[in-house]
Amino acid sequence: MTLKRTTVYVDEQDLAIIKEAATRRGVPEAEIIRRGVHLAAMGERRWEEPLDMPTFDSGDPTFANRVHEVLYGDDSTDHAA
């Protein structure tokens, strides 16, 4: 992995937490910051092709609506495919 140097401004409290964690874990602050940047980048990444996720038929025509209601507290729209 090739690393590129950059400068960012961070909240003082966040930096203090990173410094404390680095000391506690015995790792460089930069390692924790790189990990955070990587997690942020992966969270924003958009894939060219859809993920190859298997689908299945639950046999329950109300399943999609019930899942949506549990996740979002909203059952006002038909979300079944």
Question: What is the average of the pLDDT values?
Answer: 89
Task: Please state the oligomeric state of the protein chains shown.
Answer: single chain
Based on CA inertia axes, which overall geometry fits?
A: elongated
Structural class: mainly alpha
What would you report as the Rg, rounded to the nearest angstrom?
21 Å
User: H/E element string?
Assistant: HHH
Helix content: 40-55%
How many E-type strands? 0
Instruction: Tell me about the largest β-sheet.
Output: none
Low-confidence runs of at least 5 consecutive residues: none
Beta-strand content estimate: under 5%
Number of helices: 3
**Termini separation (Å)?**
41 Å
Write the layout of secondary structure elements.
Elements: H1 12-25, H2 29-44, H3 63-72
Walkthrough of the structure:
The model has no long low-confidence stretch (mean pLDDT 89). The chain is built from 3 helices and no strands. With 81 residues, the protein is mainly α. The protein has a domain at 12-44. The chain is elongated and about 55 Å long.
Descriptive key words:
mainly alpha; elongated; 3 helices; about 80 residues
Question: What would a concise description of this structure say?
Answer:
This protein is an all-alpha fold and 81 residues long.
